[in-house]
Design brief:
Layout: H1 2-11, H2 20-30, H3 37-45, H4 50-62, H5 67-75, H6 82-106, E1 116-117, E2 121-122
Antiparallel strand pairs: 1-2
Helix pairs in contact: 4-6
Length: about 120
């Protein structure tokens, strides 16, 4: 690809191509091995969807990454901010508590609640 660009600009004295469609066509015409390369390059550089960013932010915070590092990564588009991670964790926590409470209410007749003290005594 670099040889194609060098030849077009320096040997053939052509101006740079700024139109993505024309650039893609020029590359694919010059070298058939580059057919589809521009599409893959474009897909690889697109921003990930929000769901992936949430998972990345949660992973970073869980693994002990500093708040400022998470925010820096959010500013360049690789994660969500630490505040968003904290809100997301609070929502998951509340949802989990509601799920457990509902389960306990539905199955109260079949439950045993034990208080285990230092794994020696059961009260």
């Amino acid at each position: 690809m670099s040889n194609i660009l060098y030849n077009n600009q320096h040997k053939l004295n052509q101006k740079p191509i700024y139109d993505p469609t024309a650039f893609k066509k020029m590359l694919e015409t010059a070298d058939e091995n580059l057919i589809g390369f521009f599409d893959e390059l474009y897909i690889g550089t697109r921003a990930p969807n929000e769901s992936i960013l949430k998972h990345i932010g949660s992973y970073l915070q869980t693994s002990g990454t500093s708040s400022s590092s998470i925010d820096i990564l959010a500013n360049i588009g690789f994660s969500i901010t630490r505040k968003t991670v904290n809100r997301q964790k609070a929502l998951i926590s509340e949802s989990h508590q509601d799920t457990i409470n509902n389960y306990c209410l539905q199955n109260i007749e079949n439950m045993f609640i034990l208080n285990i003290d230092n794994y020696h005594n059961i009260h």
